[in-house]
Amino acid sequence: MLTAEIVLAHPQGSLVDGVYADVSDLPHLPERAHLDRTQAFLEAQGLQVLLTGPWSISVRATPQQYVEIFGCRFTEDSLKGGKAAFAGEDPSLHRLSGPHWRDLEAIVLVSTESRRSGGRGLATGDRPLPKPHVDYYHLNAPTDLRSALNAQRAYADNIRGEGVKVVVVDSGFWYHPWFQDRGLHVEVVLAPGAVAPDLDEVGHGTMVCASLMSLAPAAQVTLIKQCDDDAFTAFKMAIARRPDIIQNTWGNIVEQPPLSAADRLVALSVLDAISRGIVVVFAGGNGKKLFPQQMKQAISVGGAYVCPDGTLEAASYASGYASDLVPGRCVPDFCGVVGLKPEGVYLMMPTMPGSQIDVAFAEKPYPEGDGTWLPYDGWVVISGTSSGSAQVSGAIALIKQIRPELDQVAIKRLLSRCSDPVLIGQSSEGNPAGEPIPNLATGYGLVNVERALAELSAAP
């Protein structure tokens, strides 16, 4: 089965060809009757409708159904089980034309890079999972993450994200004793194609939730479990839940213009979320140039490494660069805590025992892995901008507890002013930290929660 976006025809112009520079440029929302009529039409064609609107309808069908109903032409590799792509100049796009399709503009395939759900995990019930001993320098959640982002005082003052709703789009969640012992809970919702809401076979989403809740343990966290082909659908599901924050670790590798139809549709949806008052946070990438992270409106998070003596250094495992796609855009905006090359082995984090990352990191010596040789212990020493962005989402939850009215623009400006500059080291791409600030390696630097809250308290 293949997930695709059926893009609605819009009276103001093409949604897949348009360039929307900012929230103010968004076309008006279609009428509900238009959406209902289109959904009924697609269901009558035998398509499985997953999620409706506002700009597109997510559906699932076999490649043969797309061929028979819409006349789509797939590449030879797609028909042989390879990555889905249309046969044309833009492999994400099949345009629809003619009176039969007056309500529809195109079919778009949105393929993203993310941690794929699936694979093998080990259910362990309620047995203890003692933290393994490692003899190299590392940080522990939650205390070291609070310390690194200067959030200890907020925690002591009971600023813990109370009442703030966060949706995480990721690989899944497993209720590790790390969460049980702290009385922390995460609601899990399945995106299309995902199964087993009580498992996190990859282990990535569990680690990301621990990073977020290290900063904001009282936040109301929902995780939408997704697979690569359904990450965008999961993001649309997240928007529909109207949270305060959406935490994302997915994106599409895009290094040069032009943007594909899929990227334009993603950009449109990110702007739609922002226009609804949702703060949208993305992992900036680990040695990859991702989109929509390169959008000027997005919050893209990189990495800063806290050395044993407390010195800040650019995380060489994290991306930091000037975009060739969006003129004047530099990624990241600011940072969470991330480790160094080759694999960012830095943060001791809970995960699902026997998950992909538990096994993969345990079976290699440090620094290529965490060197525990315990592939079913439920712990992994890991890091990356996934964890770093979740830390920043947690920091934003603390800010939103105090000032819930602050939107994407205000939050981004506040954290840009209230981050600690990083003056040494270089990004994964080799770009240096240092003056001037922001720099290409770390943007404005490592987010400083206490400074941000102090500025809010001082405001009239």
Number of beta-strand segments? 22
Mean pLDDT: 93
Distance between the termini: 55 Å
**Strand fraction:** 15-25%
Largest sheet: 8 strands, mixed
Shape: globular
Our count of helices gives 13
Rg = 22 Å
User: Roughly what percent helix?
Assistant: 25-40%
Low-confidence stretches: none
The helix-and-strand class reads alpha/beta
Give a brief rundown of this model.
With 460 residues, the chain is an alpha/beta fold. Helices cover 27% and strands 19% of the residues.
How would you describe this protein?
- By secondary structure, the protein is an alpha/beta fold.
- Strands 7, 8, 9, 10, 12, 14, 15 and 18 form an eight-stranded mixed beta sheet that branches.
- A hairpin with a 3-residue loop joins strand 2 and strand 3.
- The termini are far apart.
- The model has no long low-confidence stretch (mean pLDDT 93).
Q: Which helices and strands occur, and which strands form pairs?
A:
Layout: E1 2-8, H1 32-44, E2 48-52, E3 56-61, H2 63-70, H3 76-79, E4 93-95, E5 104-108, E6 139-140, H4 143-148, H5 152-156, E7 165-170, H6 177-180, E8 186-190, H7 204-215, E9 220-225, H8 231-240, E10 245-248, E11 252-253, H9 261-275, E12 279-283, E13 290-291, E14 299-306, E15 312-314, E16 321-322, E17 330-331, E18 334-337, E19 347-350, H10 356-362, E20 379-382, H11 385-402, H12 408-417, E21 419-420, E22 446-447, H13 449-458
Parallel strand pairs: 6-19, 7-9, 7-10, 8-9, 10-12, 12-14, 14-18
Antiparallel strand pairs: 1-3, 1-5, 2-3, 4-5, 11-13, 14-15, 16-17, 19-20, 21-22
Helix pairs in contact: 7-11, 11-13
